[in-house]
Amino acid sequence: MAGPVQSIERAAAILRLLAGGSRRLGLGEVASSLGLAKGTAHGILRTLQHVDFVEQDPATGKYQLGAALLHLGTSYLDVNELRSRSINWADALAARSGEAVRLGTPLEGRVLVIHHVFRPDDTLQTLDVGALLPLHASSLGKVLLAFGAAPAEPLLETEPEAYTRHTLVHFSDLHRALAEIRDLGWGAEVQEMSMGEAGIAAPIRGQGGLVVGAIGVSGAVERICDTKGRPQPALITVLREAARAISRDLGAARW
């Protein structure tokens, strides 16, 4: 059996070094910390930069972890720990609310549904696990945007798609909605993605309080909302209780 590949071991050591520091590091600092020649360290850093695992500050020339590597770490948490720790709470939420429950995380400018509990009745339903939802038109997505788990900048580049006449396509309207979500601690979409459908969602926090996902309840607008189109307070209460419980299981101390 072949032994370890030295270049990969060195690349891993550089990534650990950058991950463990509180600031960007220059080429000389990386090389001296790991006992590498500057030419060797530079070659590895350039390769890591090419695949977006490392970023270089154009002003100082110093290095930090790149977005692609951070996304891999978040994806591992999303798919494994987040889903496994949410399953029981999601099942209980579906039973208490009488509605479908979805768990979502950000993925490449959309919301990836990583868990879906059917509405507890005998109606025909389609499993949404693996589906990608729009950030601006879903309650899950708006919560992720509001709390910084998904970047809002791509929405500024082109006008978001209008799924219904209620979809928020102007950034000023979306900006106000996100500010309200941050104040309330939960978000809603009422016929913004599909006419006759509504949903509410709340953030799920991990260690340090960072939002790592969202959990939501969705169904017919007449069941989710009152006659004035406002989400039912009882549904908001059980939703937020479930979100807090999952957050506590993930190590969010404030919850």
From TrEMBL:
Pfam families xref list: HTH_IclR, IclR_C
Give residue ranges for domain HTH iclR-type: 5-67
Does Transcription count among this protein's keywords?
yes
Alphabetized UniProt keyword annotations: DNA-binding, Transcription, Transcription regulation
Q: Which InterPro entries match?
A: GAF-like_dom_sf, HTH_MetabolicPath_Reg, Tscrpt_reg_IclR_C, Tscrpt_reg_IclR_N, WH-like_DNA-bd_sf, WH_DNA-bd_sf
Q: Which residues form the IclR-ED domain?
A: 68-252
Its recorded name reads IclR family transcriptional regulator
UniProt organism field = Streptomyces nigra
